[in-house]
Amino acid sequence: MTQGMPLISVYVGVSVARGQALKKAGQPIPTPQNVQALIDTGASGTCVDPIVFEALQLQPTGITPMLTPITGNTPVDTETYDVSIVIPGTVTAGAPDPPFILSNVPVSASCLFAAQGFHVLLGRDILQRCVFAYNGAIQLFTLAY
């Protein structure tokens, strides 16, 4: 837990399809961005701060309606992007665990403000593939995949 929040380090990069297209065109593939992600069971989808898309030189692939506590029952249209997300593995009992690799994930753009300490809200679209245990009383969480 960091400042009372379940934060993890993730890498956000171009999708595998975009990487292959860039390679075929003889263009460099942007370096995946290492950013902090807030595990958010209240978010149905994963959101990424636009500054990450700028660093990856990505263009939106579509628009999706999004409801937030601020928008109430009126959705706002947000740009969507296709990215890859990697959650690095850890070392458990002396043995390395493999990373969790998602090669093509549609995510929504959302200004998350670095001042809050993260650039990604990791939503249920990704968490549905994991086991997440949160023990606020002892400031501990576990994310298994």
Tell me what the structure shows:
- This protein is mostly beta strands and 145 residues long.
- The protein has a single domain (7-144), classed as Cathepsin D, subunit A, domain 1, CATH 2.40.70.10.
- 13% of the residues lie in helices and 42% in strands.
- The protein contains three helices and eleven strands; from the N terminus they run βαββαββββββαββ.
- The strands form three sheets. Strands 1-2-9-3-8-5 form a six-stranded mixed beta barrel.
- The longest helix is centred in the first third of the chain and has 9 residues, at 16-24.
- The two termini are 18 Å apart.
- The model has no long low-confidence stretch (mean pLDDT 90).
Helix/strand-derived class? mainly beta
Question: pLDDT under 50 segments (min length 5)?
Answer: none
Name the beta content range: 35-45%
* Amount of helix: 10-25%
Could you write a compact summary of the structure shown?
This protein has 145 residues and is mainly beta. It contains 3 helices and 11 strands.
